[in-house]
Amino acid sequence: MNLLDFLRVLRNNKLLLLGGIVLGVVAGLVYSLLQPTLYTATSTGFVTVQGEASISGTETAQTRAQSYVPLINSRTVRERISQGGVDTAGASLSAALVPGSNLITVSAIAPDAQQAAALANTALVATADVANGLDPASNVKVTAMEDALPPQAPSSPDHLRNALIGGSIGLLAALAAAFLRRLLDVNVRTTTDATQASGAGLLGAIPQDKTMTAERTDRLGDPSPRAAEAVRQLRTNLRFAAVDDPPRVVMVTSSNPGEGKSTVIGSLAQAVAASGQPVILIDADLRRPRQAGQFGVDGRVGLSEVLSGDVFLADALITLEDGLVLLPAGRTPPNPSEQLGSSRMRELLEALSETHMILVDAPPVLPVTDSTLLANAVDGTILVVRHGTTRKEHVEVARDMLARVHARVLGVVLNGVPASGVGSDYYGGGLGSHEDEYHAYYRAPAESRKAEAPLDGAGTDAAAEARGSTVAEERRG
C-alpha cells in the first residue's frame, strides 16, 4: 500500500474515523465522570546531620533520608496518624526523596481537600517521630520544613486528559477497523481492483447516477451531464483501445447479473451514434433481454427469429434514432447457447459489421456459457464490473473463462462509482466535483444563454439558437 492508497482509505472511511473519535471522547468523559474526585496535598521535610545546615546535605544524610522513605506506609506511622485524629478512609500516602538532596516529600491523596492537607502534615510529623525514635543516639534527625496547604482544585480525574486519551484510542481502533476492512474486502472498490482482477486496462468509470440505474422494466432515460461525459469518455477510449486493429464488433458482458452492462452498452450505443458513426445494438442476452424495454420498443421479434430463419433480418431491425439501429433479442429459444455459438450468428455479425459498428449485449459469463461461445465471433470484449458489489474472485474467474476461449478483452468498465469515491481519481477528481458545478460546465451554450436571458426574451429566435447549438454539440461529440 502506497501513500495514495493510505490517503484513499482515510478519505473513504472518514465517517468511521470521525465516529471512532467521538465514541472515544465520550467513553473517556464517561469514565472520567465515574471516577471519584480526589485531592492531592504535599508536605516537605528534610534530614539533617548534627552540625550541618545545608539542604543538599552530605552523603550520609541523603543515604539516611532514602532509608526513611519506606516508613511512610509502615504500620507504626499509620498508628501515629490515627492517634492524631486524622481520618485515613479512602486516602493513600506516598513519599519520595528529592534527587540530589536530603528533602523528603510526603503526598496524601484523599476525597477531601482539608483531609488531604491534614493527612500530609500528620504523616510527615509521624514519619519524623518514628525515624528519630529508631536511633535516639544518632546525630541524624528528620525535621518538618513546609506544611501542606489544602489544594484549590482536584488532582483527579483529569477530564481533558481522559477525553484526549479516549479519542486517541477511538481513532486507533477506527484506523485498525478501516485498514482491516480494506484488507479483507472481497469486492471491487477501486479502479486498481478492477484492472488487477480483470487483467485488462480501464476503459471508463461510470458514476453512480440515478439516470444510469433503472429497473429491468424501466426505459433508458437521458443521462445526466456527469454520466453523459463518462460515457463519451468510454466511447473515446474504446476507439483508441486498438489503433492498429480497431474492433468493429464489440461484446459487452459482466461476470454476474445486475452489474449494469445493459445500461452501459445502451448508453454507449447512443454516444457512438451521436458521434456520427452508424451503430447496430444487438441484444444477445436471449435469456433475460433488456434492450427492447430500455428503448421502449416491441421486442417480440428479433435475433432468435433471425437465427432460426423465421424472419428476415430487415424485418427485425428497429431504427431508434439517426445512426442507431436495434436488433432485439426476440423470444427466448430453447437452445440459446447453440444459437449464439452457431456459424449463422458469426455470419450475421460479419455481414452487419461491413457497414456498421456492432455492439453486442451478451449474457453474464459465470451463470451461462453463452458469452464464452460468442466471444470468438466478436472482435473484442468489454467487461463491466460494479463498484462495491462485484467480487474480485468472480471477475478473476470470468477473466480466466474468457482467456480459455482466447477472447480478446479490450478493457474493463467500473460502473456505479460514487461521486466521492475512489473512482473519481480516474478523472483527476472529475467525478468528485459538485453536481451543480458539473452540470453548469457541460450544459449546452444555448442553455447558458437562456438562463442568463430576461424572461421576455427573443422567443422564436432563442429557440432556433438553442437547436443550432444542440446540433453543434452533437457533432462535436
From TrEMBL:
SUPFAM superfamilies: P-loop containing nucleoside triphosphate hydrolases (SSF52540). Residues 250-381 form the CobQ/CobB/MinD/ParA nucleotide binding domain. Pfam families: CbiA. It comes from the Bacteria. InterPro entries: Bact_polysacc_biosynth/exp, CobQ/CobB/MinD/ParA_Nub-bd_dom, P-loop_NTPase, Wzc-like_C. NCBIfam families: eps_fam. This is Capsular exopolysaccharide synthesis family protein. It comes from Micrococcus flavus.
